[in-house]
Amino acid sequence: MRSATTSVDEVMAALDEEGYAVVEGLLREPELSAARRDMRRVLAQTPGGRNPFEGANTKRVYALFAKTRLFDAPALDPLVLGVLDGVLGHCQLSAPTGIEIGPGEQAQILHHDDAIYPLPRPHPEVVLNTMWALDDFTEANGATRVVPGSHRWGDDQPDAHTRSVAAVMPAGSVLFYAGSVWHGGGANTTDRARLGVILEYVASWLRPQENHFLAVPRDVAVSLPARLQELLGYNIRPPFMGYVDGRHPRRVLEAGTS
Ligand SMILES: O=C(O)CCC(=O)C(=O)O
């Protein structure tokens, strides 16, 4: 477990070695309680999972940046941006998702997040995920389980002998994990829900999982910090990937609302 004073290089070294790293204290009070409260407000209007991957007793909040402002700052955390720069280079948000694992939920199937892209393994990282713990993550309440070192696997699949570890961490911590590392939500055997928010990023030459242009209304997008707009796709990957009618998309965003 590392602390908020951890350097970008230390996180990158752990990601390279193990495929994941836990950093404590990136979200502190009063922001932590405010984020938890606001997510629980959103969750009150959120339906349950629709399939075994989403979970029978789990709720997932999609279109996160349309529903809360409490993750604008975490998405731009300097340590996160530094690690993104080192691991992915030019990148954008892919799947910002709140995940509340309810009591009685079974362990999610182990998977790797970059499996959606048809790339032979192993390959340079194209996805980096950050799981923000809003509750304490424990072995019992469904802390994310990670298979250490599995980011280096080729076509190997986890089986009954695969050793996974629970990313146990206090609320306010962040689990960084490579898009290629095998992992999954843990089983929740307690009587309380476990709340976390995933801010997943992808190299900007790939399509993000969520279509942010439709998920986040234009009048909301225009009010966001410029760097967050870029991470939501209002950006050019050099030399010109992502232009709109020959122009930078931010210009079009601003022009459209004036
Ligand atoms: O909730 C978790 O701890 C992990 C969830 C996850 O890996 C996913 O849904 O892709």
The largest sheet is: 7 strands, antiparallel
Count of runs of 4 or more consecutive helical residues: 9
Q: Judging by the overall fold, what is the CATH architecture?
A: Sandwich
CATH superfamily: q2cbj1_9rhob like domain
CATH overall fold name: Jelly Rolls
Q: What share of the residues does DSSP label as strand, in percent?
A: 15-25%
Low-confidence spans: none
- The rough form would be described as globular
The CATH class turns out to be Mainly Beta
Mean pLDDT: 96
Q: What is the domain tally?
A: 1
Ligand inventory: 2-oxoglutaric acid
N-to-C SSE series? HEHEHHHEEEEEEEEHHHH
Could you tell me the number of beta strands? 10
Instruction: Kindly report how far apart the N and C termini lie.
Output: 47 Å
Structural class: alpha+beta
- Which value, in Å, is the CA radius of gyration? 18 Å
Helix content: 25-40%
Give structural notes.
The protein starts with 7 loop residues before the first helix and ends with a helix. The chain has one domain (8-216): q2cbj1_9rhob like domain (Jelly Rolls, Sandwich). The longest helix is centred in the first third of the chain and has 13 residues, at 31-43. It has nine helices and ten strands. The protein has helices at 8-18, 31-43, 64-67, 72-75, 78-87, 212-215, 218-221, 226-231, 249-257; strands spanning 20-23, 58-61, 91-93, 97-101, 127-133, 145-146, 165-166, 174-178, 183-184, 194-203. It is of the alpha+beta class and 258 residues long. 2-oxoglutaric acid (AKG) is lined by residues 99, 101, 108, 144, 183-185, 196.
